[in-house]
Amino acid sequence: MQNFDYQTPTRLIFGKDVISSLPDVMKPLGKKVLMTYGSGSIKKLGLYDKVKELLANYEIYELSDIQPNPKYDPSVLDGVRICKEKKIDVILSVGGGSVLDCSKAIAAGATYEGEPWDLISYKVKAKAALPIVDILTLAATGSEYDCGGVISRTETNDKIGYVDSLLFPVCSILDPVYTFTVSKKQTAAGCADAMNHIMEQYFTEDTTLLNDGFCEAGLKSLMVNAKKCLENPEDYTARAEMMQACTYGCNGIYALGNSASGWPCHGMEHALSAYYDITHGEGLAILTPRWMKHILSDRTLERFVKYGVNVFGIDSSFEPYEIAEKAIEETYHFFESIGIPMHLKDVGIDESRLSEMAHHIAVNEGLESAYVPLSEQDILDILKASL
Amino acid sequence: MQNFDYQTPTRLIFGKDVISSLPDVMKPLGKKVLMTYGSGSIKKLGLYDKVKELLANYEIYELSDIQPNPKYDPSVLDGVRICKEKKIDVILSVGGGSVLDCSKAIAAGATYEGEPWDLISYKVKAKAALPIVDILTLAATGSEYDCGGVISRTETNDKIGYVDSLLFPVCSILDPVYTFTVSKKQTAAGCADAMNHIMEQYFTEDTTLLNDGFCEAGLKSLMVNAKKCLENPEDYTARAEMMQACTYGCNGIYALGNSASGWPCHGMEHALSAYYDITHGEGLAILTPRWMKHILSDRTLERFVKYGVNVFGIDSSFEPYEIAEKAIEETYHFFESIGIPMHLKDVGIDESRLSEMAHHIAVNEGLESAYVPLSEQDILDILKASL
What we know:
Chain A is of the alpha/beta class. The first copy, chain A, has two domains: about 10-180, Rossmann fold, CATH 3.40.50.1970; about 185-385, Up-down Bundle (Dehydroquinate synthase-like, alpha domain), CATH 1.20.1090. Chain A is built from 15 helices and eight strands.
């Protein structure tokens, strides 16, 4: 077991109608608010009006149109500019993980004199950040309970996971009802994203019995509940259980004391969505079974057997390699069963830039020190197998 | 699924030699320290000298001789007196859960003008508390990651769980090596305590798939690792995994969104150890299977079947009641197998005061609103069955 240093100070207020807590949560944080959101679905939900009503006596500025795979330019830059110009006290992120990720980069950039990219690219360590409160409308990324955000810079095909302990939200307001209107496509992609967060932490060394059990519970809960959400989008319990299982995805609690895994599928997927702007969860779902197949070996066999037996209920009396291969197939079939396109070609990626992406990943993602080290050739093989 | 409002801000620094972080942790908290500890085992461990060496430039006052089932008088009162007289900035708890529980009551009492019992008995809500840092030497209570403490008042046979969000430790320093010298008796009792924390949260309604899986993982980890610790007290991995599984016991994460269970075994055990000062974990282990037997019914059957199949691996094709009864037997036998005396008579409790204790429990513990409501007669029946 590895040493660890862990802290997640975020307050979670979870359940039906918990939006009513918003004024109490915001009270100590200041009167000048930057409200960040995406394409306007929060207006259809009535959430935009509700926030305005609850915070009637606040000075609210807005940054809208934050896209999935949130962009440094214009979103982060615009947000930082508003924060500086208006002397914003607190950021209120209303939306999914992309809005929140973008808000985190803005929160750090707002207190920094230089280019925000210095912080995101780890050239400079932030000294402070504005406080963030979020109201979540999509179960997926776990950004509501971690201190990281992923920011894309289109002109350089960079997609960087920016992590700093200053960036934990003060409070995340999680009402599963706000996820009722999430489309089937996004529900499935959210499930795949959250499952991959767990797999990235499960497939490594030095795991503990407790962590393995937590991970297996997370995976099983996501698979059962995502299916229920797809069948009945207004199944409160299923939406709530899915939201809960996603929440712990990236704050480390699934893997305290495990060896670092390097998060290889995320490393590879970041290039896919940086180059092609595809849906992150779909990219992960496509890559995961191919990566699994690529790394299956005597060294990793035990992990795959445990995964197959405990997550998919495969009979433990089968031969180990049979269990492992079946587990990889089941992974593929589960993603397929929730409607995810399972080939890169299905999401608009052909062979033309695979080598370029493999090179970009190899140079930028540090996957030579992943659980199973991946060279540029390994990465290219996985990408090709994913076509 | 129930609504919840959850926050655990404590920082966990976990692993070999993490004591070296102590100066950095203490730095922002002030120079006047009350160091609290128990019977002196920290001196044998070398921990007392290590702390003095690491905090050489601090003004350290001491409160020693804090007992298991820590006492309001003299420990809490003495600690509060020292804090007020010496204008203590921060409490450093070095020891097990009892020392830490006592330190929490002191931390609250130190900033309150009146009798500390007003706070502990919930007559008055604390407005502030001194910061607490702890170095843990026993895996059991989970106090290192929660905001509660149990305090006993001998003259009234009161043993109260005092909970206030002000009382989260700022930081818990968890080095499994410090638990190598824990006796077999205390290792087993710690395991039983931690297991019961989980069972109290598992046996209730409205549980989620994720929570059930977390609880089952916790129970299995504790059973496997406690046995290893008993066989080889210096098995680092086993001590570390046990410490990890205990840590989450009482901060709520095993049951976010579950219905309140009322923690019935703890309610009953508090009277046993208040009247007889027995080891808390042993009291819990004795009561648990008798309580289980008492509450097994058509209403609770599903829980016991799930527990039996997922925790003990009982064949799910058996009849449900057969699985449930077997699960209760396995619970009893597990505790017996780790050397816990499994009858009240074995720990010095005879029938003479059972009725008095049952009455005390019924009046003070609110178990009429537990998962399965317990009347005074129910409680007496469980105590009698535990003789």
